[in-house]
Design goal:
The protein has 345 residues and is an alpha/beta fold. Helices cover 42% and strands 15% of the residues. The protein has 14 helices and eleven strands. Helix 3 (62-69) packs across helix 4 (76-89) and helix 5 (128-141) runs antiparallel to helix 6.
Length: 345
């Protein structure tokens, strides 16, 4: 057991009361894990929780908690208060109690936090409890606070009960379920490449196509907005790649950009038509196009297909190139000229 714990990031004691997880075994596992500062989660099936003493958390359902505490499930407040008392008595960091359609409660000695259940049509509850345990363990060993972890666990359990039988939850399914909340926050749309690839994988797992466009987007104007709106109409998701500050300087000169890369990315991410923003350092986005493999690449009408970077690559995997008309009379250069017009000689 010690060698297994030594290579683990978390320990789950899944007790089915079959005689394997004796008090001696539980305590040995808990002490070994705690000495390595890794979380221990116990899924109890015993009337007494004493054998799980010292765990990070015990994860009973309401029925199990009421049996262990001698309280009635009809009095939710009393059951949760009893769980709070157990936290100190058993040397836990907190207790996480699943409450079916009421969600999951994080019980500390001096506080109660309840994450409401995710509303889903229920087809089969098989495996929901194990899904909660697995998601909480993953969250804790990833350094996520338990209050966030129980919210993730609720979402994961909601996916499982919407299926028939005992099934795993994939990363893409979890991402897609979280997407409506993620998309309400613009900063969650600004992504590093690895996170963007995960987001694309989630979108494509449900059959959504990805549109790509790129540019400096320094001093956003109506021409940019028109391009982005037209690009979004070419597919299900729009990814906008912007040149980093260093890349813009290399292309436009030392006086540019006027707006820094972080601010440009954040402004673009706030637009409803934009689903993701990524910053790149290269003079061209070719390596980014090859990594993302968009179904469509879009550029403005001042380009031709022959000089669009990535056009050949996109066509090679069955994608297409779209050129949209530009809005005449609008550019960052012209905006700057209005702000600081040239002085007469």
């Amino acid at each position: 057991m010690d060698s297994s714990v030594a290579s683990a990031d978390a320990v789950i004691l899944s007790d089915y009361a079959k005689g394997v997880l004796t008090e001696k075994v539980c305590q040995h596992a808990i002490q070994a894990a705690r000495s390595r500062r890794i979380p221990v989660l116990a899924d109890p099936k015993q009337r007494s929780f004493a054998r799980y003493r010292g765990a990070t958390t015990i994860c009973p359902n309401l029925h199990e908690l009421s049996q262990a505490s001698g309280t009635s499930t009809q009095d939710l407040d009393s059951v949760l208060a009893a769980g709070q008392s157990m936290v100190a008595d058993l040397g836990l960091e907190y207790m996480t109690a699943t409450m079916s359609d009421k969600g999951i409660a994080v019980l500390r000695s001096n506080s109660v936090f309840v994450a409401p259940a995710a509303a889903r049509q229920v087809f089969d509850v098989s495996g929901a409890g194990d899904t909660v345990m697995a998601t909480l363990a993953l969250a804790l060993c990833s350094g996520i606070e338990i209050e966030i972890g129980v919210q993730l666990a609720n979402v994961a359990a909601g996916i499982v009960v919407g299926k028939i039988g005992t099934v795993p939850v994939s990363r893409n399914e979890l991402l897609m379920s979280l997407m409506p909340q993620i998309e309400l926050r613009a900063e969650e749309k600004v992504l590093a490449l690895d996170a963007l690839l995960a987001r694309l994988s989630a979108w494509r797992s449900v059959g959504q196509s990805v549109v790509f466009t790129n540019g400096c987007f320094d001093l956003l104007h109506i021409g940019h907005i028109t391009l982005l709106e037209a690009a979004r109409q070419q597919g299900d998701r729009l990814v906008v790649a912007i040149n980093s500050d260093a890349s813009v300087q290399g292309l436009k000169g030392p006086s540019r950009p006027v707006v820094g890369e972080r601010e440009r990315a954040r402004i673009l991410a706030a637009l409803a038509v934009v689903d993701a923003v990524v910053v790149f350092d290269d003079p061209t986005p070719l390596r980014l196009v090859e990594a993302l493999r968009p179904e469509v690449i879009v550029k403005g009408g001042d380009y031709s297909e022959s000089n669009i970077v990535g056009a050949n690559e996109v066509r090679s995997w069955g994608g297409r190139v779209k050129i949209v008309p530009i809005v005449e009379g609008f550019s960052t250069t012209k905006l700057l000229a209005k702000v600081d017009p040239p002085q007469p000689q």
